[in-house]
Amino acid sequence: MGIPLTGTLADTPAKLAAESLPSSCLIMVGSVVRMVETNPAVVDRVDAMERFREKWELGRNLGRTLN
């Protein structure tokens, strides 16, 4: 897992000069992130993934107690 680089577009060049990003990286700009956060399809998918994760962890923990 890489180190997140957060800041503004204005201070990004200085941060990148101090520490370069790994060869494979994902750069997301604020307006894109805000669009995704409010997109109903994405919100529904994230909610469904969270419910699945909770059920999976519940089942995994139940399996531990039965063993």
UniProtKB/TrEMBL annotation:
This is Orotidine-5'-phosphate decarboxylase. It comes from Litchfieldella rifensis.
